[in-house]
Amino acid sequence: MDYPQDLLYTDKHEWLREAGDGVYRVGITDYAQDALGDVVFVTLPAVGETFSRDDAAGEVESTKSVSDVYSPLSGEITAVNDALDATPENVNSDPYGEGWIFEIKVSESSEVEDLLDAEAYTATLD
After folding, report:
1. How much is the pLDDT for 124?
2. What residue segments make up the domains of the chain, in order of their start?
3. pLDDT in tens, 51-87
4. Which of 56, 70, 101, 124 is deepest in the core (most CB within 10 A)?
5. Phi-psi region of 64 (alpha: psi -120 to 50; beta: other; left: phi over 0)
């Protein structure tokens, strides 16, 4: 399994990549997509919608189950990956690239300090 060192993680299996100006791109980890199996549908949040940290912000549906995608930070959705409507399998094939789910502009910057680095995240999987 792959856990890039340049990303931040949550214990709920989301990853974050800083995009600049307080915006973070969010997706689910390699571990999560593997556990779900073949992804067949992704429910995206709406641009402009606001969430508190740990709110359910979307869903990933696979051939095995449906799983919530949680907002790792409080803030406003600034972009969603509309390509997942046609190619939800990108969550499986490229979870850290084309399989990203949404971008969020953080409203509580102190929450970033609670995120995990790759080493701390992988320790939660043992």
Report:
1. 95
2. 8-124
3. 999 999 999 999 999 999 999 999 999 999 999 999 9
4. 101
5. alpha
- Separation between Cα atoms, residue 92 and residue 40, nearest integer Å: 10
- Mean pLDDT (whole number) for 46-53: 98
Q: Characterize the bridge pairing of strands 75-80 and 102-106.
A: antiparallel
Residue 38 token pair: 């073949």
Exposed, middle or buried, 65 (CB in 10 Å: 0-12/13-18/19+)?
A: exposed
